[in-house]
Amino acid sequence: MKIKKGFAVALIFSLLFTACISFRNEVADRGSFNVISQAQEVEMGSEAYKEVLAKSTVSKNPTDLARVEAVSKRLIKVIGDDMPQADWQFTVIESKDINAFALPGGKVAIYTGLLHIINDDELAYVLGHEIAHVTCHHGSERLSQQILIQLGAVALQSVLKTKSPKTTNAFLAAYGIGTQVGVSLPFSRKNELEADKIGLRYAVRAGYKAEAAITTLQKFEALKGGAGGPELFSTHPNDSSRIEALEKEIAELKNN
Fold it and tell me: What is the pTM assigned to this prediction?
């Protein structure tokens, strides 16, 4: 029996959606959809990291390197089996940017612009947050999500093949905006809150002060001159939202 392309793609999409419900992210303790293995994460992250560092100025400042090494070692000791195949590497990049990032598989970088305005307890929260992105497989989950979204676009395009180009483009544009605002960005904001929560736990387990997470975000908020604009079109929750969530998590940790 010959199956139409649109139906076949829709069927595959349906099966993948079912897999999303049935698969589980053990570290985050929630349902998940991820088609990327840990070995693939390590490989992809390593390649991407090389590209980033090739375009960056890697710090050789012994004081900065010693701080990051000392804090990161304590954090890695407490993550247990959360990411057994990770190839951890922590790098300090010379930049005025107030930022840090993590790539799948265990590659983490922090900019001197951020490093120089935080103490070690706050550094533990920042690095814990980035480590949590890795252990929760946020990068590979987002990539897997994009595969689903692209598959949905293919299915939609197939269904609309008898329509005029103007109608097709309108539907595809609406689909793109809808998946971005309704799926990708909310998922990204949830990832950030999740990394805050789990990263905080790592920092506390490693012996750092939980309240440092709050003071770090307060510094971010002050540097930006306020809580920020609407979250709807942002990849990150507002600092005020993150502070509120972290305060609840800190209270819970103290009660347990």
Answer: 0.77
